Q: What sequence folds into this?
């Protein structure tokens, strides 16, 4: 089991603990807002399990049916998490709307609020771990899980403040109103996750900053070539694919051209660890006089 999968397994454990704490807080207070917060934690458990399964699939090596590997499985996890978030938002709204029409007293029991606060702190710490590890491993599944949990933390803070205010002021409609705001917040979060994941499934290219870095590396390590054009990039989970045409003098030997390709591959992979680089070598009459010029 690699490090990324171990982190995903840790997410399942943390999500289950947080779920238990939030439902305990709901039982101690009877707050609809705290109930909505606990309901979202069910989604967190399901999302963590989905991410764990996706990462295990993504870690499989390439085979005859999947010659480019299984790394795109991580995007399915992020899409599924977005769908689950939307379902959670609908469920919360179903509870909050009737409660808003007929507000009931909220017991702002200190014990319940403290339990919920403890769950929020645990979530915040774990979200930091997921975001750090997700960036390091370039894992869409871990990053999606981290962003979702971070949204949950913000939601929990707002809910706690609202429940406390409802209990202290007697404005009981604040509790279901905050539950509705929670629903809107996580709905927006789910939409963002699905949008990013669909971009990966549709072979979206690298971000502009990364593309500039790739072009700079290409320009600095292609001595002997004339130009490079038709650069194409795409992400597939933690993998980055880079393809371009390399124009060399027509009289250059295959061995010399191959040496330039090896140098370029090494340089790009040093900049983007694990990148898959494909280079199509062309003679100088195929030059397009644009793209990346050799320094």
A:
């Amino acid at each position: 089991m690699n490090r990324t999968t171990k982190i995903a397994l840790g997410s399942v454990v943390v999500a289950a603990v947080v779920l238990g704490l939030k439902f305990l807080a709901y039982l101690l207070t009877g707050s609809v807002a705290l109930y909505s917060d606990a309901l979202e934690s069910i989604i967190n458990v399901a999302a963590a399990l989905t991410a764990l399964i996706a990462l295990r699939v993504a870690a499989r090596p390439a085979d005859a049916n999947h010659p480019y590997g299984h790394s795109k499985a991580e995007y399915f996890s992020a899409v599924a998490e977005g769908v689950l978030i939307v379902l959670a938002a609908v469920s919360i709204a179903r509870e909050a709307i009737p409660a808003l029409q007929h507000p009931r007293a909220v017991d702002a029991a200190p014990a319940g609020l403290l339990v919920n606060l403890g769950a929020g702190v645990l979530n915040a710490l774990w979200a930091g771990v997921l975001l750090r590890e997700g960036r390091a491993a370039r894992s869409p599944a871990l990053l999606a899980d981290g962003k979702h949990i971070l949204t949950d933390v913000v939601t929990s803070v707002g809910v706690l403040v609202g429940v406390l205010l409802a209990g202290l002021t007697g404005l009981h409609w604040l509790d279901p109103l905050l539950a509705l705001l929670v629903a809107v917040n996580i709905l927006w979060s789910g939409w963002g996750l699905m949008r990013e994941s669909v971009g990966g499934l549709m072979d979206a290219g690298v971000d502009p900053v990364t593309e500039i870095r790739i072009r700079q590396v290409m320009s600095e390590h292609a001595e002997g070539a004339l130009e490079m054009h038709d650069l194409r990039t795409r992400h597939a989970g933690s993998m980055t694919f880079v393809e371009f045409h390399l124009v060399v003098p027509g009289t250059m030997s295959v061995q010399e051209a191959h040496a330039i390709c090896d140098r370029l591959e090494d340089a790009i992979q040093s900049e983007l660890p694990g990148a898959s680089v494909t280079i199509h070598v062309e003679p100088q009459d195929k030059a397009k006089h644009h793209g990346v010029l050799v320094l």
